[in-house]
Prior knowledge:
The complex is a heterodimer of chains A (276) and B (354). With 276 residues, chain A is of the alpha/beta class. In chain A, 25% of the residues lie in helices and 30% in strands. Chain A is built from eight helices and 15 strands. With 354 residues, chain B is an alpha+beta fold. Chain B starts with a strand and ends in a 9-residue tail after the last helix.
Amino acid sequence: MNIYQPNLMRIREIMDETVDTRTLKLEFEDSSLAEQFQFSAGQFGEYSVFGEGESTFCIASPPTRTGYIECSFKATGKVTQALRRLAVGDTVGFRGPYGNHFPLEEMKDHSIVFIAGGIGLAPVRAVIWNVLDLRDQFKDITIVYGARTVADLVYKRELEEWAQRPDIKLCLAVDPGGETPDWKGLVARIPTAVEQAVATAEDTFAIICGPPIMIKFTLPVLEKLGFPGDRIYTTLENRMKCGIGKCGRCNIGPTYVCKDGPVFTAAQMRKLPQEF
Amino acid sequence: MTHKFLSHQELSSLVADLLAAKTRVIAPVRAKDDPEQIDYQLIQCFEEATFGVRLPRRSLKEFFLPPTEVLLHYKQTKAGVEIREVPTVAPPQVIFGAMPCDVAGLATVDKVMDWDYSDELWFGRREASTIVSFLCSAMDATCFCTAVGLGPESASGSDVLFTPVDGGYVANLITPRGEALLHNYGSKASDAQLATAQEKQRDARRKVEPNLPAVSAELGGWLASNFDHPTWKTIALRCHGCGACAAVCPTCHCFDIVDEHESADEGVRRRNWDSCQTSLFTLHASGHNPRASQSERFRQRIQHKFSIYPSRFGEILCTGCGRCSRVCPGGMDLPTILGELVNLSQAKPEVSGQ
Lengths: 276, 354
């Protein structure tokens, strides 16, 4: 079996997040693989539909939940549209886990602020559940999540669950014009929501993922709050084929998203050439 | 270091014996479509081989990383998907008459192919191969191997290096695999033969050296810290983005992975050569392209070869073969461009002409 050959997984469950975004719950066909498989929050994989090709997504479920993985994707290209045509019980290929991960060991005994926009919640969600499953090892948990409209919010059932928990501060926001009459969250863009929801950077790490424009305007807010660049983590994506440093396309200057990332600190990102 | 002398007759017998044993033998031959041109090809008899005429049109890369290769076979069944693996063990092959630049390219690409994940398809072929390179005598004004730390006599990646002398070759046995290949062939090289071989190697170097001064180690650092230098805006104006340079390059190894149906329910996953010079290479599904212009794509080519790869793996990702310049329809000339970049990287440009 060469390094480009995927393992086979079955779709156990399909969950529609929005009109075009879907989550698949996948289980390894080979039960011994299912037991051996380990990963860390932030890692990614190459998912494939046979006859259509491979596509790169993060593993959206936490490593604390074993026996399955989840991926969330928007039907945009050839492979994601093909993935959307699959049904429960169908087979997909999976190679991984690849790349580095969020350093949760380092974040233990600290507070964490999670900030996500749109489908950027997928990699952050893996970390959120990982932290919630080990809740007593962390201090305050704040989640700031927003999307363009209420309809674009993903993992809605989990947002409700987080809203009910007393040990999480959840702040939801939609862009102006994206609210519905019964919307109870903020009508604001993410940087404003962060300003309102986050009081201090003391003993706190920030994990942020979303569209580049959101990250660009949120980083100054975090810096103003006092977050140093090496306590702000994000995850990058770039077009990939191999996922393991050989196919030559995901590098940003000298930095390979697949091998050096996908998780980077804001301090590391600032040193990258403007090529992403 | 061990040396031997092989007469023309002994080389011919060696090749005949290998062919008789059903070993794949690859050598430079006259191209069928253009007798002026040379291609590396599988040969059936020794007489097909043509040594030392000119640089083959393409490098040896295709014998290790084929332009297209199957990574797996799949079949959709009612129960699911079945995968049939492809073999990672390759049949033994011996390459005669390899150009030192092409062989050095293989050794350089080994580094990335072994970066944490070992590419079994590449190394399966590498391990099955014995490479006999010949002192280059086909250099022209576009060659610049000596500028990138190699030379027409470089042994990097070779198991044996042949240097032509009267009546045959002085064989420099570089690896145990090379020694094994010539175990039953040739005789002790005389001091005179060794001296002649050394003189020929020095002569060959002297023919290439004037083409381009050595690319300094500082160039990589300069490139890394001059990602936004204005020269990138103009340096690639002649580039069409066709990717011909990558196809003929001994070290360009970037690839695409695609699926192909072969019937309604069967097909293959393939790895195909790709090039960072094409606009689709980095295009996201969203429509965003991190390298949207040709100048950004050409910058990637130069940065990868002369800064990123050296900083990662300690070697320049270029062997100075000059093929990219020879095939470029736009007249992009790498040695000229390198010369300009080296000048830019030196605070006080030196006046040459001695």
